[in-house]
Amino acid sequence: MHLIVDADACPVKEQVYRVATRYRLPILLVANSWMRTPDLPGLELVLVGPNLDEADDWIVEHCDPADIVLTGDIPLAARVVARGATCLDFRGGEFTPDSIGDLLATRDLLQSLRDGGHTTRGPAALTPRDRGRFAARLDEVIQRLRRRQRSPEVDA
């Protein structure tokens, strides 16, 4: 199991580091440009080219069903879920096969409105409570996946 982070815009890296350290999980930070990272065992910064979807493409090519991908990018989440990996947003919401279609449709509708000149609000600023909720949710998902690995017949 790896934590694969869509790192360029990830606002919860500190929470990812803490949870991953607790469980001794490797972290792959996938980014288009260099960023400062702490000296943690199992932490790797994967630099991809500067093109718009290169980080997304790398993540999709390298994730598998045992991994947890962390992203705020709904189209990337759809691709990851289609590959069978678990995917969380930066507030701890889990993208699932049942939810991803509605999320993509909503995203496309809002983009259409913006393209038509309508002003839409972006997401609310991340609060300390949101960060705590994310860390707790990541912890829960890791535990669920570990139980499933030990006992494949158990379904969450």
Structural account:
The chain is built from five helices and six strands; from the N terminus they run E-H-E-E-H-E-H-E-E-H-H. It starts with a strand and ends in a 6-residue tail after the last helix. The chain has a six-stranded mixed beta sheet, with helices on both faces. It is globular, with a radius of gyration of 16 Å. The chain has 156 residues and is an alpha/beta fold. Helix 1 runs parallel beside helix 5 and helix 3 runs antiparallel to helix 4.
Short structural summary:
The chain is of the alpha/beta class and 156 residues long.
List keywords for this structure.
single chain; 156 residues; six-stranded mixed sheet; globular; alpha/beta; 6 strands
